[in-house]
Amino acid sequence: MYNEKNILLIHGFNGIPKIFYYFQKELEAQGYKVIIPKFPVREEININAYFKIFDIYRNMMNEDLIVVAHSIGNPMFIKYICKNNINIGLYISLAGFAEPFHVEGKDVLNQVVKPLKITDEEKERNVNLIKEKYSIYSDNDHIVPFNILEKYTSVVDSKPVFISGIGHMGKKIGLEELPEVIKIIQESNYKKI
Asked: Per DSSP, what are the bridge partners of residue 34?
């Protein structure tokens, strides 16, 4: 049964990052129901494949839902709620981007991000669909260029949260905890709006 304390975690290219299990442990201890779907990874990723997984959780997507998305999960989430006109309470982006980029030697990743540009229409629509938004990004992300990470905050009209030294928040940096996300959720005003 879905309730008003649902948190949906959306992973990116390489699957579920360690910090998602940290979020799950911390937030379930506070009474939240944390859902971590398994989305397609690497060459299996495409918009339709992600959307099929989102469809499974469609009945929990409402103004009470909290969403935390990592990397590719961000444009996929924005595209889905815009296509389906879904209102969300709180959204926290980790290493989010709204336009394609190129990483030398990562051909599969480069192909996957090509169609993930957030359109002007999606930019306009998401502003009204999500009550409260935060974008967490870092200065040493080895995947998404810094200017694109920075730009994402204005594309989705979110509050920027810059944290130095946490990279792309995945396997390479070895990040296992990100208490800033827990703090944002605890201090959020989205239910009071």
From this structure: 7
